[in-house]
Amino acid sequence: MGNLDEDVLAGLEEFVYRADLDQPLDIGTGPFGNRMFFGLVGGRVDGADLHADVLGGGDWVLIGPDGFGRIDVRGQWRTDDGAAVYVQYTGLIEMNEAVAAALQSSAATDYDSQYFWVTLRFETGDQRYSWLHRYVHVARGRLAGGAIEFTVFRLG
Q1: Which of 76, 118, 123, 143 is close enough to 91 for a disulfide, judged by CB 3.0 to 4.6 Å?
Q2: Residues 106-112: what's their mean pLDDT?
Q3: What range does the domain containing 82 cover?
Q4: Positive or negative: CA dihedral 150, 151, 154, 155
């Protein structure tokens, strides 16, 4: 996991976010690498202060010659009490053998099977969730059998 202490991270955990993935669309290799699109077709967000359904979205990942995918995701959530939340996140996933095998078989990886970290940004007009705007959020990801799953941490 690098230089992050597990005990420190455990104290910063905000929620778990799982997004179900549609079959990938391989756009092909262009001047910047291999572009793929993964539709977000559902999922769930659960934590102490946030419970929501994933309404949809997409990941426009660019896989470079260095073996890393540059994540670029936009999506929408609806909280259990009716608030709409827009989420955008970017980051890196190491496209190693564990990831390739999981993508081909809809299997899961462990958090430590690959480098997979993102930074998240939120927008909502609902004041009950304005706390999302006031903190930096980072997440550690893994593949979860046809989905992606993140443990999201609040810094600060």
Answers
A1: 118
A2: 92
A3: 6-155
A4: negative
